[in-house]
Amino acid sequence: MMLNNFLLLGAVLFCTGVYGVLARKNGVLVLMAVELILNAVNINLVAFGAFNHTIAGQVFALFVIAIAAAEVGVGLAIVLLIYRNRRSIDVTEIDLMKG
Amino acid sequence: MGLLRNAWVIPAIPAASFFVILLFGKRLPRLGSEVGILSLLASWLLATGCAIQWIRLPLDHESHLRAPVTRGFTWWHTGDVRIGAGIHIDGLTVMMLFVVTFISLLVHIYSSAYMKDDRRFTHFYAALSLFTASMLLLVVADNLLLLLVGWELVGLCSFMLIGHWWEEKDNSNAALKAFFTTRTGDAGFMIGIVILFFAADRTFNIAAINHAALDGHIGHGVLLVGAIALFMGPIGKSAQFPLHTWLPDAMAGPTPVSALIHAATMVVAGVYVVARCYGVFWEAFSIGNGGINLVAIIGGITILIAAALAFVQDDIKKVLAYSTVSQLGYMIMGLGVGAWTGAIFHLFTHAFFKANLFLGAGSVSHSGSHHSFDMKKDMGGLRAHMPTTYRTFLIGSIALAGVPPLAGFWSKDEILNAAGKNGFAVFMVVGLIGAVMTAAYMTRCVYLTFFGEYRGHGHPHESPPAITGPLVVLSFFSVVAGLLALGQKFGHWTLNDVIEEAHVPEFPFAWSAAFVGTTAGLIGITIGALYYFRNAGPHRLTERSTAARRGYALLANRYYLDHLYTGVIVGGIKGPLARAAYWFNQNVLDGIVHGAAAGARGAATFTYDVIDQKVVDGLVNGAGASAEESGGLLRTIQTGRVQQYAAVLFAATAIFAIALIRWA
User: Fold this and answer.
1) Total domains in the fold of chain B
2) Does B616 reside within a domain?
């Protein structure tokens, strides 16, 4: 089995996600980028699991999916509230914690 | 037997009533008075039952006495000493139980009318119940410690009830005076109890102490010291010379209280204790030998000085108060001259006629003189307006004066008779002079209150039945109570093993003593009647004679005893003691305090200037300043932009990951 191909796919997805998180201004897109990062991790987990003939990788992946669902639920609720308060979901404008 | 063994219920009922009245009294339709009256009725019925059972108790074959009924339990242990608590029921106890519950019941009924609309009606009833419970506890107690508990509780109730109308300064002062004066005696009383405890091989049991004293187990010196110390309690409680000054002032309390506590029951607690511990006093003062002894002397002095004071009082209650002091002197003197039966019989009869007189005086003030007790200003001529009160008061006065066949005659006669036969001729004469004076001042009192012109400004009328009812009952007893002396019934009923063991002589009725005693009473009444009713004798003597004026001043100032106590003794101790304390305070204590303060101040200044200001503040300020500087530098990287933080996070993670891969 070619492990490298899966790891490469995971790395590409991860980098795409990091780029999205760091560069995007739209809050929803930032959340979507977070999903990309998590799924990149999932691919790695499943790939390593298959490579080592163990079920643990898939179990971990299932946990990550469940937690990602919860995370995106909370995240979208936050974005929705920010939108209600400020009529914008531009994450660069949210800098109340500026020192 | 059943009732006698369970006589502890008699004090328990009013004790329960006290808590019920205190907690729920104000919500009851009659504000708690019904609880008090019913509980006392129950106690009285039980006490009467006890008396009947006691009289029916079979005599012991050997001693020809009724054996006392005792019952108790161990209260606590300390080491190998067991302190018990229990009841000791004999003739004396049964007699006291009957008198206390009976008078208390009548006073409870009387108060429901007399104290009507009082602002602290419920508390008044609660205190009356507590008083009755404590007095009954004192009476049934089989050891001195339990007796002391009752003794102090009645003192407390007396304080509470004298100061019932404490808003007026005079009343609260009188309450304090009563409390402190009796406490002076109580100090000795407690010392006496402790001495007897050790002398009688570590027991508080009264019967054991009496027997130890009588069979010579206790050395005479120790016994004498113990008895003198113990006797200080009765001197205070029973208002004997020189601690009698509190009782007239105690009349500041409501009249039913004066009748119950300061005439019929509490003040006889001292007499009761002497009678109860008679073995101790009999041996310690060698009463059987007919010598002059402390108990008789104190009693004799009290009879005369108090009777003399009763002549110069304008306040009807104070006349009765001094009369009470004088009659208590009779009882104490009776005990001092070996007339044990006579003394407690006088206690018994005196309770009825003195309660009768006090309640009569209350009735006069309630309905006749507009709440005044001043005979000269607000009374006079009340005979026509208050016939029931007048008749009952007159019966009480005649009974007190000792005219046969009323109650006072029999008991006074027994004391005088025994005094003469036991070789105390001096005290018999003192008793006779006292009898003359008693009859004369009571004549004066009756004259000023009920005869002549009405001098008040109210509309005198007869009192309601709740007031006159008890008066009629008490005057009935004032007439018949003395008849128990016939055939020495009272003496047989109350006789106990201590009196038998001590060989206290018992004398049958003697015509000679009765004749002399009655003559003394009649002379007194005649003198009083001639002086007041016929206007004979030297009137206005104080305006003409310097000696008479001085005598009057001496009496009006109560022999200057109050001045002696508050001015000389309290003032004398207070002044120098206060000055000494002030000097000590100013020079020694202040010196120490000032020195310490100066030292502390120097140390504090050094600490402040050097350590606090320079070192500590320097450190703190330095830390603050450096934190501020570094914070100012660091704040520039806190942009508040989440993506920038994330970028730093990723960059750092990447650097650590590379480092991990490269060197791990």
Assistant:
1) 2
2) yes
User: Which residues in chain A touch residue B643, judged by CB atoms under 8 angstroms apart?
Assistant: 21-23, 30, 91-92
For residue B242, cis peptide bond before it (omega within 30 degrees of 0)? yes
Statement to judge: residues B473 and B577 lie in one domain: no
Q: Are residues B413 and B518 in the same domain?
A: yes
Cβ <8 Å between A21 and B643: yes
Share of chain B above pLDDT 70, in %: 95
Whether the CB of B638 is below 8 Å from some CB of chain A: the reply is: yes
Please tell me the predicted confidence (pLDDT) of residue B192: 92
A21 touches chain B (CB under 8 A): yes
Closest partner CB to B647 (pick from A22, A95, A98): A22
Residue B525 CB coordination number (10 Å): 22
Asked, for residue B550, whether it belongs to a domain, the answer is no
Total-model pTM? 0.72
Q: Are B99 and B10 in contact (CB under 8 A)?
A: no
Range of the domain at B591: 561-647
Residue A42's pLDDT is 95
Q: Is residue B549 part of a domain?
A: no
- How many angstroms separate the CA of residue A48 from the nearest CA in chain B? 18
CB-defined contacts A:B, below 8 A: 34
Higher pLDDT, B459 or B469: B469
Amino acid type, B126: A
Q: B615 with B502, same domain?
A: no
**Residue-wise pLDDT tens digits, B413-439:** 888 888 888 888 888 888 889 888 888
User: Binning pLDDT at 50, 70 and 90, where does residue A77 land?
Assistant: very high
Taking contacts as CB-CB distances below 8 angstroms, the residues of chain A near B641 are 91-92, 94-95, 98
pLDDT digits (tens, 9 = 90+) for B88-127: 888 889 999 999 999 999 999 988 888 888 888 888 889 9
The rounded distance, in Å, linking the Cα atoms of B15 and B13 is: 5
Q: Work out the average pLDDT over B512-541.
A: 79
Q: pLDDT class for B536, splitting at 50, 70, 90?
A: low
Judge whether A76 and A31 are in contact, CB under 8 Å: yes
Residues paired with B89 in a beta bridge:
B69
- Neighbour count for residue A44 (Cβ, 10 Å): 21
- B658 to chain A, minimum CA–CA distance in Å? 15
B536 vs B407, B529, B531, B533, CA distance in Å? 30, 9, 5, 8
pLDDT band of residue B1 (cuts 50, 70, 90) is low
pLDDT band of residue A74 (cuts 50, 70, 90) is: very high
Do residue B312 and residue B425 come from a single domain? yes
Dump pLDDT digits (tens) for B326-382.
999 989 999 988 888 889 899 999 999 999 999 988 888 888 777 778 777 778 778
Asked if the Cβ–Cβ distance from B643 to A18 is below 8 Å, we say: no
8-state DSSP, A89: -
B642 and A23: CB-CB below 8 Å?
Answer: no
> With b meaning 16 or more CB within 10 Å and e meaning fewer, what string describes B9-48?
ebbbbbbebbebbbeebeeeeebbbbbbbebbebbbebbb
Q: H/E element holding B310?
A: helix B294-310
- B599, B468: one domain: no
Q: What is the ipTM of this complex?
A: 0.85
The tokens describing B622, both together, are: 């330095």
Is the minimum CB–CB distance between B632 and chain A shorter than 8 Å? no
Residue B590 has pLDDT above 70, yes or no: yes
CA B580 to chain CA centroid, Å, is 35
Q: How crowded is residue B640: how many other Cβ atoms within 10 Å of its Cβ?
A: 12
What chain A holds in terms of domains, given with CATH numbers, is 3-87 (1.10.287.3510)
B633 near A CB under 8 A: no
Are residue B294 and residue B165 in the same domain, yes or no? yes
B557 close to A (CB below 8 A)? no
| B327 lies in some domain | yes
Q: Are B110 and B362 in contact (CB under 8 A)?
A: yes
